[in-house]
Design brief:
- The protein is of the alpha+beta class.
- Helix content is about 30%, strand content about 30%.
- It contains 18 helices and 36 strands.
- It has a 15-stranded mixed beta sheet. The protein has an 8-stranded mixed beta sheet with strand order 19-18-23-32-33-34-16-36. Strands 24, 25, 26, 27, 28 and 29 form a 6-stranded parallel beta sheet that branches.
Length: about 675
């Protein structure tokens, strides 16, 4: 019996030190794309998070030591980010003092009970944040380096083949939209959105069911704020004391009033409003047609943000088909606030680098079948992606054109933009996709972040006056090929510097939640300091090429492929920085977008009979394009929105105060 205590002690130690392993899967419409393994042993937690999607995805390892208060006293993060930038981050607490360092920033503060928000960590953060917030009175906790997290219970849901009851929550303060999570008690079961799911291994719930639930929960949240954001007015509304931007002439006109009734512009005239009329005083600002984003990958919260920023029309160039069709239906029915949308259907080829979304095809018959599917489901065009077999482009384009569909895309690997145009492209997405043929060497593969870094490293050496570029330029002019350059995206990729981010974000970054600010001040690509001069020179060459294409009359349309709404304003600023005048930039963002989509008879200018899609800003963006951010009023189809109210509902500080609506009877909220 003497040995019994020793045996018991040994057994207790063994039990205490036994590790538990939790595994989560990242799922998309195209299957599994990543795995997170969480190994817990006592106070120590080790995380391995790996994603492979379209040649991109974070590869992160974390080591965490938990303190007695249920908060980390040590958190070490290392690996690579979404597009290959190195990640090395450390957080520690000693004697009540918190310190953090990363490759982009450093700081310290009293730790208190604040929860540390990592900059480039794994989704383990959600596991931790959920548990901490549930244990916090009021479900709200201050955060480090800055900000506040808030947990909101949406409702209890029944999920999976076993009909398990889980609690659905929204976590506010992590980004530009709430994070939707499902929990079993204080245990994270899934992080869900309409396009991707991170879910515990073996959970008996399908991707389709979880994304459908995410759509429903998101709509519930949006409906709680929409009633106060959308306003209708009975009778005509007069907008007075504003300069009217005319994209046909590229000039502004003063002294005219715009009358809106039942979703249409019914008057543009100089006479004064009649007695008792509903009047909006423009305060000397500028009234523009609603803005067009010709490259926006939509979701429900980006739709709200678009309208808040004056974007009333978006071309979505490829998305998850089920989620996109559902979003369009909800916007068109008035259930959700959002822009009008034209859809391009995503077509990808089969390879180890295939991107998620739309359809992935391997044969000509498969590809043509999916083209017909897109036509049958009301899509405006198709978008061809990186891994498509170049030999399939010509038959795909021919079938799309036969069905009246527009053809755009990335240039598939081992194909040139010159051949893509010859084989039927109507449009090239992104400036880099046009230019890769001039900087790639034989057999180099652009299906990884190399398609970005090679531009930064080599574009400076391209001579736009040379015969190769001039030949492609002539081809684009002859065939009227559109370029949607997404210039601000490449400014943010190539111009970002550690701790500073990119100048392209400077107009909006201080207005958004702290975690977004920190994220945008971090490197995206693996760029070394000795490479900065080359990247700067390539950025200058990129601007020179954009200005040249504009002078030569190549059709170009502004688009984001980034942060909705706020990012379109950055895109317009990037065009002006590249040498395109504010006038021509605004024409491209209004009438140019309408012409691109074949809608100029109904949209794109402020004229009698056209749809009342309007954007009122403070100041004159023809004088300073940065004034495009100072929204005071948005009108879409007869519904009136105040940008400051909408941005505030998304935890974004406004850029200007809304106009006063002087009405003879109270405005009636839109019934949803």
């Amino acid at each position: 019996m003497k040995g019994a205590p020793l045996v018991c002690s040994f057994l207790l130690c063994s039990v205490a030190s036994a590790a538990t392993v939790d595994t989560y899967a990242l799922l998309t419409a195209n299957g599994r794309r990543g795995t997170m393994t969480v190994t817990t042993q006592g106070a120590a937690i080790d995380v391995d998070w790996r994603v492979d999607n379209n040649g991109r995805g974070p590869k992160i390892r974390e080591h965490i030591v938990m303190g007695s208060a249920g908060l980390p006293v040590l958190r070490e993060i290392s690996g690579t980010g979404e597009s290959g930038a190195p990640v090395k981050e450390r957080f520690s607490v000693e004697r009540g003092r918190a310190r953090w360092t990363s490759l982009d920033d450093a700081g310290e503060a009293e730790a208190g009970a604040a929860i540390y928000l990592d900059n480039r960590g794994s989704p383990w953060s959600l596991v931790h944040e959920l548990r901490v917030l549930l244990a916090t009175k009021g479900l709200t906790r201050s955060a480090l380096p800055a900000g506040t997290l808030r947990l909101e219970k949406i409702r209890t849901v029944t999920v999976g083949t076993k009909k398990e009851r889980l609690d659905a929550y929204a976590i506010w303060g992590l980004g530009l939209s709430p994070e939707l999570v499902l929990a079993r008690g204080d245990h994270l079961v899934a992080d869900i959105n309409p396009y991707a799911v991170i879910v515990e291994e073996g959970f008996p719930g399908s991707f389709a069911a979880l994304t459908a639930l995410a759509r429903a929960l998101s709509v519930e949240l949006l409906s709680r704020v929409s009633a106060r954001l959308a306003h209708r007015v009975d009778g005509p509304v007069w907008i007075t004391h504003a300069r009217l931007f005319d994209p046909v002439t590229g000039s502004s006109t003063e002294g005219k009033n715009v009358v809106v009734y039942q979703g249409r512009v019914v008057g543009v005239r100089s006479d004064a409003p009649p007695a008792g009329a509903t009047v909006i005083d423009g305060g000397g600002g500028t009234l523009l047609p609603g803005l067009f984003d010709s490259h926006g990958h939509m979701d429900d919260w980006s739709a709200l943000r678009d309208v808040a920023c004056g974007v009333t029309f978006v071309r979505d160039p490829g998305n998850d088909n089920v989620s996109l069709l559902d979003l369009v239906r909800r916007i068109d029915s008035g259930e959700l606030i959002g822009p009008r949308i034209k859809m391009s259907g995503f077509l990808e080829g089969k390879s180890p680098f295939s991107a998620a979304g739309g359809f992935t095809v391997g044969t000509e018959d498969e590809a043509l079948e999916k083209v017909r599917w897109y036509a049958d489901h009301g899509f405006w065009g198709i978008k061809i992606y990186n891994s498509m077999n170049p030999d399939l482009v010509k038959p795909i384009a021919a079938e799309a054109h036969r069905l009246g569909l527009h053809v755009s895309g990335h240039v598939p690997a081992f194909m040139t933009s010159e051949r893509a145009i010859a084989d039927g492209y109507d449009e090239i997405n992104h400036i880099n996709q046009l230019l890769l043929m001039f900087v790639l060497k034989d057999k180099e593969d652009p299906r990884t972040p190399f398609r970005f870094t090679v531009i930064g490293e080599r574009l400076k050496d391209l001579d736009p006056a040379g015969p190769a570029f001039q030949r492609v330029l002539g081809q684009m002019k002859q065939r009227k090929i559109t370029l949607d350059p997404t210039l601000a995206v490449f400014d943010s990729l190539l111009a970002a510097r550690p701790g500073k981010g990119s100048p392209v974000d400077s107009g909006w970054l201080e207005h958004v939640p702290a975690p977004v600010q920190r994220d945008r001040r971090s490197l995206i690509l693996d760029i070394k300091p000795e490479q900065y001069p080359a990247y700067d020179a390539s950025l200058k060459r990129q601007d020179d090429i954009i200005a040249l294409l504009h002078r030569e009359g190549v059709p170009m349309v502004p688009g984001t492929d980034d942060v909705a709404g706020l990012g379109l304003h950055s895109e317009l600023e990037s065009w002006v920085h590249a040498g395109i005048s504010p006038k021509d930039t605004l024409v491209a963002a209004t009438l140019g977008g309408a012409r691109f989509l074949g809608l100029e008879s109904d949209l794109g200018t402020i004229a009698v009979g056209k749809r009342a899609d309007l954007y009122l800003v403070d100041g004159d963006p023809l004088v300073d394009i940065r004034n495009i951010r100072k929204g005071r009023l948005v009108v879409k189809g007869g519904t009136f929105y105040f940008p400051d109210e909408m941005l505030g509902a998304m935890q974004i500080s406004p850029f200007a105060r809304h106009v006063d609506l002087a009405i003879s009877a109270p405005s009636t909220p839109v019934q949803r």
